[in-house]
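Subject: Re: docking follow-up (guanosine-5'-triphosphate)

Dear J.,

Thanks for your patience while I sorted out the input files. As discussed at Tuesday's group meeting, I've set up the holo structure prediction with guanosine-5'-triphosphate included as the bound ligand rather than trying to dock it afterwards. The sequence and the ligand SMILES I used are pasted below, so you can double-check that they match what you have on your end before we go further.
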Amino acid sequence: MAFNWFRRQHTDSSDTSSPEKQAETPAATPSPTESATAPTAETEQAVATDLLAFAKAAYKNIQQKQQSQSVETPTSEETTEVVTETTLETTTETLSAQKVETLAEVTPSAPEPPTENVPQTPVVTLEENSEKTSTEAVTPPQEPVGLSLLAKAAAERQAKQERLMATAIEVTEPEEVKPTASATEVPETTEAIPELDFDEGFLWSAEVLAAQGRRAEDVSIEEITWLKRLRQGLDKTRRNIVNQLKAIVGQGPLNQAGVAEIEALLLQADVGVEATDYIITALQNKLREEALPPEQAIAYLKQILRDMLDRPQEKSQKQFFAPEKDAFNIWLITGVNGAGKTTTIGKIAHLAQKSGYKCLIAAADTFRAAAVQQVKVWGDRSGVEVIANPGKNTDPAAVVFDAIDAAIARQSELLLVDTAGRLQNKKNLMEELSKIRRIINKKAPNAKIESLLVLDATLGQNGLRQAEVFSQAAELTGVVLTKLDSTAKGGVALAVVQQLGLPIRFIGAGEGIEDLRPFSSYEFVEALLSG
Ligand SMILES: Nc1nc2c(ncn2[C@@H]2O[C@H](COP(=O)(O)OP(=O)(O)OP(=O)(O)O)[C@@H](O)[C@H]2O)c(=O)[nH]1
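The structure tokens for the complex came back this morning:
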């Protein structure tokens, strides 16, 4: 049973991704701390206790999973005594004193952009028609950590943290948390997970997953790492707006000065005029009705943002954006030069491969000499075949044509089509894109076709101008927002949905193969506004 990274749940072979089935997974529900009624000190305490228990159980399970993976080569030093609880309590107790220092000591690891000179790739040229597939192992890059920023967030959450720690000793582990193997099979040690601290970022990530109905035993190291990465990626945006927003929104009914300040903050984060107007009006209406304490006002603001981000996909009635299992899906990836198309293809191929989909890549960026080589490197890293034509000045539509044949012959479930970067004002290149789209429509009329525009978040509002022309040429169905880690303009996500009316399907927050995930409005808004 593979974990489906698109749908965030375990799936089996009988799984389909029809809307009905997709609705089985609980929707992202607001965090317990965001309920409409004011929480009492008692309920807050209970929630904090629950969250700590959840986080500890999740940490313990990740630890056990890792140990069970290495259990095949036991050493004489292994012990079957269960001492993990002590470890977690010790970790928790020392967290307050150590966390800021620990965070400050972590050095971000260098990302792993693909190199141009890789000797072997799993490419299948149209001439060769080889069946060879790369099985080269992929090593996920280590998570770079935003140091002072995380430390700042940690300091702001200090009060809550203190409560969590105060209850740590009394916590009883939830009974439903089952280890992945029996205690005799899985030795537990006092060792913490080397690449995963039980720190403030872990607690925050666990809280976000718990609020979405996830079970502690299903939480994986990759999910925690991604959430920490996402929050860290949005640090710049958050630092610019959140504290000031909180201060203003928490003051009760908005006066003119407050409105002007919020307006400036949102525009600064590239939320855009249209989306900013919408947010302010919604906030004003609510705050006129009742004076909300700061935490509840922020909770209401989060709700507004989530609703905005989810609106475009309400039409499709799909809760998750995933390739349909046992069907032929074609995802056409387009965008201007350097937006991150090839990188996105590599990351999606990796997710698809991990999630158990039969995947293929079409190297239809025949414009740039190194592009085919680059996508081959990504194919190699994700273990996915690449269909390419090594000839010069090849017609990209012809590559797509052949790739569809190859995908059908191999019974591939997902064909990812890489295209050359093009500026929307280059008429001939946009016509070429239309031709590619026509070929897909004609050659695979029964395929589930998605056409995704890759947008570089660092371009902010400027990036949005491309969308309309691409929409006509490629019949866009969604957006991939990349480089959220390198910008203070993370608010552009709101502009995308409000101005383009297109759903955000994936977000990228780094150059590594694990640094892209399907978009979740809940996680995005939590990361954007987490204090
Ligand atoms: N920091 C960061 N860099 C990214 C992200 N996604 C892509 N990049 C980087 O952006 C650069 C361009 O990425 P590519 O995937 O080559 O972009 P492209 O759209 O295929 O480029 P063309 O084929 O030239 O149009 C590379 O250096 C990537 O590593 C991201 O989410 N974060």
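A couple of observations from a first look. Residues 329-519 form a domain with the Rossmann fold fold (CATH 3.40.50.300). Residues 41-69 form the longest helix (29 residues).

Let me know if you'd like me to rerun anything.

Best regards,
T.
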